[in-house]
Amino acid sequence: MVARQLDEQLAARFAVGRRLRVLDVGMGEGRQALRLARLGHQVTGVESDPALVAAAEEALAKEPEGIRERFRPVVGDGHDTGVHFLPGSFDVVLCHGVLMRVESPDALLAGLGRMLAPGGLLSLLVRNADALALCAGLAGDWRGALDAFGAESAAEGPVRADRLAPLTAALAGIGAPLERWYGVRVLAGRASDGPVPVDEAEFQALLAAEERAGRTDPYRSVAALLHLCGVRG
Fold first, then answer.
1. Which of 34, 105, 143, 200 lies 20 to 30 Å from 114, alpha-carbon distance?
2. Which strands make up the sheet holding 71-75, listed edge to edge?
């Protein structure tokens, strides 16, 4: 779902056929980065876990030479982008599932903003603090649901969550104001008794419903994850 939303933003922002310079911070095993390299873009993936970088390199080794030349996995921390790259070096910066593991995201966001060229796209995927109680309740975790109502709980613990309004302000502050946002996992994967359907037609119906909900108020506001797209002025 995030890939579809990202492709939509790339198509709206950049000319068809343009080879983009992409930085994927916290790339994990490099699935998103590799997908974009297959589409013809020049991708640098940064990941702090050497084991995940090794997994990305192993997957990359199986690709044709042209794709291998377009994807460069790097062991590094998202806070150190200014050490490795010049300001304005990238047309697209991805930061998916990273802010939730950062105690204070402001410095990281500022660094990512500096990496963007004018007109560049910053794509963030974060846990939605406004959905914590709902997620816990649908999973039958009543104590977790009660705890989630505490105003400070969203910012505490090893896995943080963020709210739309403060992130919107933060994106404006780094010169990449929010252009579009989506909900992710609005319907799918929320309840403990809701398995992904095996039947292909039913699965496609699930994808269609999830995509519609992720674009529609009030449903997207209670999605488990938020996908925010900011654009460098």
1. 34
2. 71-75, 42-47, 21-25, 90-96, 116-127, 225-231, 178-184
CA distance 93 to 44: 10
* Closest among 180, 182, 167, 164 to 229, alpha carbons compared: 180
Q: List the Cα angle 64/65/71 in 5-degree steps.
A: 95
Give me the residues of the chain with pLDDT under 70, please: 150-158, 189-198
* Domains of the chain, start order: 2-231 (3.40.50.150)
Q: Which amino acid is at 133?
A: A
Whole-number pLDDT of residue 195: 55
- Which residue has tokens 């929010």? 178
Looking at every residue in the chain, the average pLDDT score rounds to 90
- 196 touches 203 (CB < 8 A): yes
